[in-house]
Every structure is written in C-alpha cells, then in structure tokens.
Design goal:
15 helices, alpha+beta, 596 residues, single chain, 3-stranded antiparallel sheet
Amino acid sequence: MTPTQRIEDYALIGDLQTAALVGKDGSIDWLCLPRFDSAACFAALLGDEENGHWRIAPKGAGHCTRRGYRENTLILESEWETRTGTVKVVDFMPQRDTAPDVMRIVEGVSGSVEMSATLRLRFDYGSIVPWMRRADGSRVAIAGPDSVWLRSEPRVKTWGQQYSTCSSFTVREGEKVAFVLTWHPSHKPRPAQIDPLAALEHSTHDWRTWAARCRYEGPYRDAVVRSLITLKALTYAPTGGIVAAATTSLPEELGGVRNWDYRYCWLRDATLTLGALLSAGYLDEARAWRDWLLRAVAGDPADLQIMYGVAGERRLPETEIPWLSGYAGSAPVRVGNEAVGQLQLDVYGEVMDALAVARDAGLTSEEHAWNLQLSLLGFLESTWREPDEGLWEVRSPRRHFVHSKVMAWVAADRAVRTLEDYPALHGDAARWRAMREEVHREVCEKGYDPERNTFTQSYGSRELDAATLLIPRLGFLPPDDPRVIGTVDAVRAELGEDGLVRRYSPAGAAADGLPGREGTFVACSFWLADALRMTGRVKEARERFEQLLTLRNDVGLLAEEYDVAGGRQLGNFPQAFSHIALVNTALALSGEETAG
C-alpha cells in the first residue's frame, strides 16, 4: 500500500486529553476517543478509508493550496483555491468540559465553492461499523460503549451511503457552515451542545494567552512557541502526564516491523521535559508533570517502569491489530508496548535528576518525595552493576550500556548535591559519594575506547551510541575533557548522515533484536548541536540547529526520525522528544541554559 499522505502531510489538533491528525486533503485520518490511548474511531492512517476517516474539502479537490495554524494557537486553517472560488476549513478541538468535540468550520473566502464531506466512523481501531440514525436534527452513531453525534449549523443535505454519512453543500463568500462531532459513553445522555463559533473565539483566546507566557524572546521564538504548543497538546490535562506522541505504529522504517505504540508517558523524557518547561516559564505545567511523575513511580523501587499510562497506569500489554495493514504496509500495528517490562537502569537517574531540577527551580516538594528518592537510590545502589536493555529499548540480550551507567552516576551525584544544598534533608552523603566515585571510575575504565578516544555504546563494544553526547550536559565530565571532545567527533563521524545523527551504529542496530534499520533520530541530532556548542563549536552548532529546523513540516511539526535518502519524516508523530530537544537547544544557543 502506498499512502497518499506522508507523515509530514498531517497537522495536529487536540483538546489536552486526546488529539487528531488532519491531512492536507482535509481528511482526519487518526483520532482516539476519549483519551490519547483509547481505541481509534478514525484509523485510516494505519489502514485505508474503510478503517475510518472524516474528510471535508471542495468537491473533486486534492491537497489544500495552503494551510497553517492561527498564530500562537492549535487551530488549523486549510485553504483551497478552486476555479470558482476560495474556501477555508478551520479545524480545532476546544478544551472540553465533559465531552470531546471536534469542530470543523467551513468559511467562504471568495466566489462560490461546492463542498463535499464524508464521515466514516469505525470504532475499535477501524473494526466496528456503528449503527447510524437521525435524532433531534443530528446523526447519532452507536456501537457498544461508544456514541458519536454529528450536527451542522446551518443544516446541510446529508445522507447515508456505503456505511458512511455524506454531505454536499455550497459555500459563498462570507458564509460559514460548522460541523460538530461529539463523543460520549453510549449509556449516558447526549451532552450539552456547544456553539462552534463561540468555541472558536474562546479557543483562540485561550491558546494565545497561554503562548504569551513563553519568556523566551530569542531568534527562534516562533519555532520554540510552536514546539511548546505541541508539548501542551500532548499533555493529558487531568493528570499532567505528557505522551511521547499522539500515534501508534507509524514506522521507523517504511514497510518494516519497527512500529511501536507511543501514546504513553516515558520517564526518560522527565528531566528534559522539566528543563524545557521551566526555562520557557511554564511553572504550572512543570509542576503538573513533576506531580504526575511522583504519583507514577510511587511504590516499591524494584517495580519502577520506564513508561506509564497517562494516569499512571502500569499495565500496558502489547497486542497486534491484524485487520489494519499498517502505514505504507508497515505491519504489525501494535497497541500497548512490551518494553514496559524492560529493565532500564537509566530511569532511576532520570527521576533523580528531574526531581533535583524541580527542587532547584523552587517547586515545593513534600518530605515524602525525598524519601522516595532515597528509596530509589538505595535500590539502584545494589543493581547498577547489572546489565539492562538501555534507553533505546533494544529487544536483544541485556548489556552494560554506558549511558545506563552514566545515569547511575547522575542519580548518586544529584543525591550528594541535594544534601549539600539542602542541609535540612536527611541522608548519607558519604555513602552516595562513594557510589558516585565507583560508577565514574568503572565507566571510564570499561566504557571508554582509548584507541579511538571515544565512549562506546556498552562495555567491551566498539559500537557508538548518540546517548553519550549527553555526558557533558549531565556533568559526568567537563566539556573540555579530551574524552568528551573525542566522543563528539566520533559520533559525528560514525553516526552522522548528512548532518543528522543515528541513535547507534548500524552494526549495533543489527544487534537490537529487530530486522531492518531505522532513520536518523531527530532528538539525537539536536543533542549533537548541544554537544558542539558545549565543546566550543558554536557556529557549527547553530548551523546544525538551523538545518534541523528545516526538517519540520509546513506547520512546524516533527516526527521521531527522518529518512535522509527518502527526504521524509518517519516514526510516531508529532514526537514530544523531538520538540523537547528543539526547545532546549534553542534556549541554549541563545545563552539561556536549560535547567539542569
């Protein structure tokens, strides 16, 4: 299957509890209701139109002529120029009170344009055709626990055809036709109707008020604000958790099996996320993310997971959806993520670092948070010498990953620094200093290749890992240490591809337990720019950063990876990790170091 839409052809709309992807052709091809991790009711993204979509566009038209977000909002405007006139479709999801609404307002810009709309609802990831009927001037679709209402203002000609709901109408200059799609549990009464035009005004005001809080005023403000809006859109507002992406199973290799569910919250993102939010002035969001983190990791430190559900759920079983062919035939389509059961020792360091960053930023913390940190560190003290799967979640035998060991050092280091800076807290600083020194000594002895002057991916390996670019940022070694400079140069030379960076060596990829290979990793490419800046090569760092900005799609969004040969984005979309890295690098290049 060859999809008509590239990954970068999509734009994001959302209501801070779920999100939809809208293509350049005016079709919503992905939407999970009512949460990010719920089953999709539009799944054409991972199959075809029969798996659910909702398209509104001029009759017979293809891709829109131009599109963009309203300035400093998550409100998408797509415009088509036709031989008879110009029309605009405004797509958004207002922040919900009770029920999620998808609103699509068709505006006549000039002339007269004949419009066509097709709504094809398919619940449970495109597998269930609902029963559709008319009620109270609307259409209502019901199947099991799901109920969806569709209405238009003013009413337009609508009919059923091939298990779809079709509409046809003409819009002239100055006219507006609004469509509202509302979901609610089928056993509950229909929720109150919202005025779509009033909701558009409120949403515009809400987003612009939020964006105005960004205190970064540097040369990359537009890119930073767009990335921050994207991170906000990926936030599950009821809990403060931030999902890694809005999608599942968008491939890291077209036609391959590297297709994962990213609609969950990863601990590895914790410190970088907090740094971006705090540095940009978003204390409330940083506090909500910190509080989500504390709730999620509470319990036996031996049970710490690498990821959790948006409300802190622990059970995320991985299953395959056989009726979906996958994006561009990239199967299997997966729901859930088996990596949740992996041992990744680096997450202990991520949590310790994140909570240290939060404390230093003035986010008040109760005593139980420090007690939890001591408990996590006590467990790590007895396990850091063990091999693990590492932050890249390899599905191959465990190894002694250098980055995991460095993060164990970070955990001990942050404990020591916290006790030094906050003497009222209790703890054995001497004990954690001893652990810190032991980890540092072992990493420098076993994780460093003196012949090539570089840190490696794992003990005894000759393969490289882009995660070692973080060594100076984490404070493990100073930026001017020859071993740091050598590592940056080696990663740039061996993992680089046209200015971008892969996560690890191709030979290392063959050993990650999966066939095929992936594209360059966007976040790691930003890390290279950071490392170049820290090692004194600011001009090259800025050039790399500005090159990365060109990878964004026309509305400023980034996926997880980039295929250099194919010139296209790969992986789940939009990717929080990529946008977090963009914000942190932009702030650093502007002399505004991120927290931590």
